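Objective 1b. Sequence-to-structure analysis of Ankyrin repeat-containing domain.
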Amino acid sequence: MTPSEALTEAAKEGQVERAAQLFKQYNCGVSGALVAAATNGHLEIMKLLPFKAPCFEHHRQGQRGEDAWNLAAKLVISAAENDRLDVLKFVFPEGPDDDYWYEYEESYVSVYDDEYISDLYNVALEALRKAAAKGHLSVTTLFPTPFEGVMTM
C-alpha cells in the first residue's frame, strides 16, 4: 500500500492521528483522502490536509487548475450525496454566493466568468440531484432559492 493509499484509508476510517502522521511523514497526495473524508463526514481530517475552497475562486478567475476544480467538485457532490452538511459548510464557509446563481439564471453580464458560472451551477445541480435521490433534502438549505424548484422537477 502506498502512503497516499494509506492516508486515504485513514481518512475513510476517521483516524485523525494516523492521517496526520502519514501526511507529515510522507507529504503524499491528498486527493483520495480528501474525498474519503468528505464522503464519510470526517471534517477534522479535511481540516488537517491542504485543501482550500478557494480553488473555486481560482477557477472563476480563469486559473483553470482542472485538478483542483475536479477535486472540489467531487468533494461537494460526495458530501451532498452522503448528507454531510458540515463538510459543505466547510467548503462554502459563507454559503455559495447568491450572485453566482442569480446572475447565471438571469443571464446578466457580470464580473463572473460565464464558463465558471456554468461549471459551478452544474456541480451544485449534480450535488442536489444526488442528495435528493437519497432523501437528503437538508442539503438544499445551503443553496440559494434558484434551486428550490430543482427537487420537484
